[in-house]
Predict the 3D structure of the following.
Amino acid sequence: MTFIDPEATYIDIDVTIEPDVAIEANVTLKGKTQIGSGTTLTNNTYVVNSKIGKNAMITASVVEESEVEDGVTMGPYAHIRPGSLIKKAAHVGNFVEIKGSTIGEYTKAGHLTYIGNSKVGSNVNFGAGTITVNYDGQNKYLTEIQDNAFVGSNATIVAPVKIGKNALVAAGSTITQDVPDNAVALGRGRQINKEDYAKDKPHHPENQKNNHTSEG
């Protein structure tokens, strides 16, 4: 085990750490946390009552009352909230929040994503800005995303809903109904282009030129 700065590290008495773990400064390990061999915890990582597997890389992230399996990469600034399971070799990137969910093996949520009350299969890809809408103000509902699905950036998935195997959700879509296996789902307004309409607007260079001329 390697401590970069032992005086700047807090480890509770009930924490267990296997050999060959690297712990950088300002790491906090609390409760009955377990850290597997070969794992690295970088600066400002906070883990409480959680199990981190072997050969994981946790970068400046928070893990609370959850399990992270072998080979997971996480962070920076990911937040794993209670009741979550991050399976083998998944990637949870920067500013990703996961709550009460299972994330399958080799699944990737690279950045700026919220996954709550969800069951996610293996090899799923989440684009930036994806949100699972799990709470209607009174009740929480399940989102299920099956193996090999692809969710485009800025998609909003309104639970309860199921996205099938190999399905694709187009970027910018709001999904409120189940998506069958192998389907492409689009749930967004149609783009309309009004030709030459912008020429009447103040920002257009021709209008800015005319305004400058009249002022002179």
